[in-house]
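WARN no homologs supplied; continuing
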Amino acid sequence: MIANEGVALSRDELTLLRLLASGLPIEAIARRLQLSERTIRRRLRAMCDQLGFRTPIETVVWAARQGLV
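OK structure emitted
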């Protein structure tokens, strides 16, 4: 099974991945998006689960290979 088959990411999810791919730490992403660190971590975990990856870095690598970030 392909981890990302048939999955569409929202604009907010793509923004989060782009910020993570740019090298910003979770704390800075949370400040920039005006969300708590806990919310950012929860959203990252949900994306990983949705796409079938174990870590946010795997998700960022996939997004980069797809030309999304």
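The first helix runs from residue 11 to 21.
OK
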